[in-house]
Design goal:
globular; eight-stranded antiparallel β-sheet; mainly beta; 1 helix; about 5% helix; five-stranded antiparallel β-sheet
Amino acid sequence: MRISSLAALGFLAATLVALPLQGADEPGWISLFDGKTLTNWKPSESPTSWKVEDGAIVALGNRSHLFYTGPEAPFKNFELKVDVMTEPGANGGIYFHTEFLTNNWPKKGYETQVNISHSDWRKTGSLYGVQDVRELAAQDNKWWVQHIIVQDKHVTIKIDGKTVVDYTEPATVTGDRKIGQGTFALQAHDPKSVIRYKNIRVKKLD
């Protein structure tokens, strides 16, 4: 039977709409971003620094942090995977075990650095200010997977499957900047930093 071009296009469109978000078919993984809106995400200062474009959350503008506020939070032991792409000179980050703050840098939890060619020497995958990475494990203008694993006091950070941080928090650490529980946040660092985040998925661990 012959199918008209219009019918074929309609079938293709319906098929594309029905496709699941990446990670949805991975056992135990939950998507935190629908690829279209900022539903379940809340920006702090400078909310105009965030938009959704071509299935990705784009950070571009004055300092702001975008916090996950959906029903899956809080998170304690988990694996988080985020597809990330930077434009040259960009600086950003992915926070975990944090909480919403209306302005300034998040005070609670840890930041995993996103930076390929910004002047800050702490490069992508660094557990910022705790266990920093000087070597480049990714490239600007190319997607990579930033994989963060937290199990009790142990933090592992992988870039495209390569372990760049393996850290166990000492019992002597006190204050807010420590492992506990909380939510995730993405960082818009400054008006010259353009970063895209997509396929944000999490697996909760026991």
